[in-house]
Write a structure and sequence with these properties.
two-stranded antiparallel sheet, 595 residues, APC_superfamily, Amino acid permease, Amino acid/polyamine transporter I, mainly alpha, transmembrane transporter activity, transmembrane, disordered N terminus, 2 domains, membrane
């Protein structure tokens, strides 16, 4: 079936469908929220990769850029679908297993969707710091409190006695100073920083914290929902404004230290992982060191591969045959610049040890660090706080737009529940957006303390690398099974082959890397979460649809009447699955953390 659409006219969208309101520039702007994702985990990756951190970002970005050519080819084949690469690749697996297709879509969705909760958690931290700051230990407020109340602490006071017991060799005077300073900071910290309505522990998962971070993050999420409620054109317009405001200063922050000579090249040479995660000491390239490096590659992929979201909007493009490749190609070039420059400059200025500051690791201190790279002015720092919040909005907008369309198209193709296929009068998939919102309110509660943040990230990335493995293999499966289908843009064959190899490299990252982030069971938690789609798909496909897919599911491949087509690839897809699973299991066994 031909997917050509006249670029000179914008056809009226049928009632209940997405609106064709974008050209490649609009999709590019919607995807422009990907570069700020570098700020989500720049501290965490420095903690596990040490001096090798910026190399991790560069290698991961190169892999993401190469992989995008496979996704661009597949996207061009499906001019009538939205939802992104997972949707287009999933159709390749349908002939071989009905289960693999919805699994791929589900894994992509639960990898992308947490950007909402993680971004809102960081943004809420910035709001709290701006309005209800914890006083610095050397601030005048703290000094005044100590002057007024410090006499209550003597060498015989129980807190001082406890401090001396825990810190052998400390003098009583130093212990009194430390205890009184801590008491002053505690007394002057606004009560809202400690407020929590309640906490709920879920065995095997974590603790849900319904605190001030959760409340502020939920409000921010609703604001973003309201913007996207008016459709993709409105979203693209808002993204364009945000992107220009955010990305230009962010680029300058990355390039200024290089131009002014502020890079300390001792910080970016002697490329070795640390001796232990978050240890700061240089290690070696032994099994433990490689485990940390692969763990960093594992998490970096969640950010660097993310510009593939540019092809989520094919069904909303006026001319998908022309615009799809341009959207993902130029989005990839944009990300290449930022994922190369920002980590290099950041590490060059602060060093691997400096990037382990708690505020950089959890994201709430990154604005101050960015500001300090170009100026010592407090005003500049405050400007970067505002820019950081806007950058988070940019990333969250991208995530909600893409992930909701994945749910929408998954519903239309018969893989996910029917209610997700609804759109409003503006062509926005509102039921999918509400589902995204509800899921992320749950994740926001889980990520509302520092311990839960990287747990959510580690589990969601199990889904993302699973999706990438399946989709990169889908590229050659489509070449074999649907070679006759017109491709508006066709990737060089050697790239399809290279990206197939990279699929198994991603399997290596998955097996070795998930355990690095402090949660030994993260891989298996992610696998269990991925498996939750199976009963959902079974009910939709076999109970609601009687074992048949909707007519539109495979019409782009020229297949009608529910037929799935000939399995021309034979046993090769099954062999790919078996090899991928073997690599994951072996890597999880072989690679161990340094100890």
């Amino acid at each position: 079936m031909s997917t050509d659409i006249n670029a000179s006219t914008e056809s009226a969208a049928p009632s209940g469908s997405l609106h064709r309101a974008l050209d490649w520039r609009g999709a590019f702007w919607v995807a422009a929220g990907v570069p700020p994702l570098v700020l989500f985990s720049i501290g965490g990756i420095a903690g596990v990769a040490g001096q090798a951190a910026y190399v991790v970002w560069m290698l991961s970005m190169c892999m993401g850029f190469l992989q995008s050519f496979t996704y661009a080819e597949m996207a061009g084949m499906f001019g009538n679908k939205s939802g992104g690469a997972s949707i287009y690749g999933a159709t390749a697996w349908l002939r071989y297993s009905k289960i693999i297709a919805p699994l791929s879509v589900w894994c992509n969705w639960f990898a992308w969707s947490p950007v909402l909760s993680l971004g809102c958690a960081i943004a809420a931290g910035y709001v709290l710091n701006a309005l209800f700051a914890i006083p610095a230990a050397d601030s005048q407020l703290v000094l005044d409190w100590i002057a007024a109340n410090g006499a209550q602490f003597t060498a015989e006071s129980q807190p001082v006695v406890d401090y001396l017991a825990a810190n052998a060799g400390t003098s009583p005077a130093d212990a009194i100073s430390a205890v009184s300073t801590a008491a002053a900071v505690e007394a002057l910290t606004p009560a809202i920083r400690h407020w929590e309505a309640f906490a709920l522990t879920i065995p095997g998962l974590g603790t849900l914290h319904f605190n001030s971070t959760f409340v502020i993050g939920a409000v921010l999420m609703l604001i973003i929902f309201a913007i996207q409620h008016r459709g993709i054109a409105s979203t693209a317009s808002a993204q364009k404004v945000l992107a220009v405001i955010v990305l230009v200063p962010l680029f300058l922050v990355g390039i200024v230290p290089i131009i002014t000579g502020s890079i300390n090249y001792m910080n970016v040479t002697d490329i070795v992982p640390p001796s232990v995660a978050y240890g700061g000491d240089r290690g070696s390239w032994d099994v433990g060191g490689w485990t940390l490096f692969l763990g960093a590659m594992y998490i970096a992929a969640w950010s660097t591969y993310g510009f593939e979201t540019a092809v989520c909007y094919t069904a909303e493009m006026r001319d998908p045959a022309r615009d799809t490749f341009k959207a993902i190609f130029f989005s990839g070039l944009l990300c290449m610049v930022f994922f190369f420059v920002i980590p290099f400059s950041f590490q060059g200025v602060f060093g691997a040890a400096g990037m382990l500051e708690p505020g950089i690791v959890d994201g709430t201190g990154i604005a101050a660090a960015l500001g300090s790279m170009v100026s010592a002015s407090n005003i500049v720092t405050q400007i970067f706080v505002i820019l950081m919040i806007m950058a988070l909005f940019l990333a969250i907008m991208t995530a909600m737009a893409g992930s909701s369309r994945t749910l929408y198209q998954g519903s239309r193709d018969g893989w996910l529940p029917r209610y997700l296929g609804h759109v409003n009068e503006h062509g926005a998939p509102t039921n999918a957006m509400w589902t995204d919102l509800g899921f992320n309110l749950f994740l926001l509660a889980l990520a509302s303390d520092a311990g839960g943040y990287f747990y959510v990230l580690a589990i969601s990335n199990v889904g993302y690398l699973t999706f990438n493995f399946l989709n990169l293999n889908a590229g050659w499966i489509h070449r074999i099974d649907s070679g006759h289908i017109r491709r508006p843009w066709k990737a060089p064959t050697f790239l399809i082959g290279l990206n197939t190899v990279l699929a198994f490299v991603n399997a290596l990252f998955l097996g070795a890397g998930a355990k690095v982030w402090g949660y030994s069971g993260a891989l298996w938690s992610g696998v269990i979460f991925a498996a939750l789609i199976l009963p959902v798909f079974w009910y939709r496909h076999y109970v609601q649809d009687g074992g048949h897919f909707p007519p539109e599911a495979l019409e782009d491949l020229g297949l009608k009447g529910g037929e799935l087509g000939e399995r021309k690839a034979g046993i090769l897809p099954y062999l790919a699955l078996a090899l991928g699973a073997t690599i994951v299991i072996w890597a999880n066994w072989f690679f161990v953390l340094p100890g």
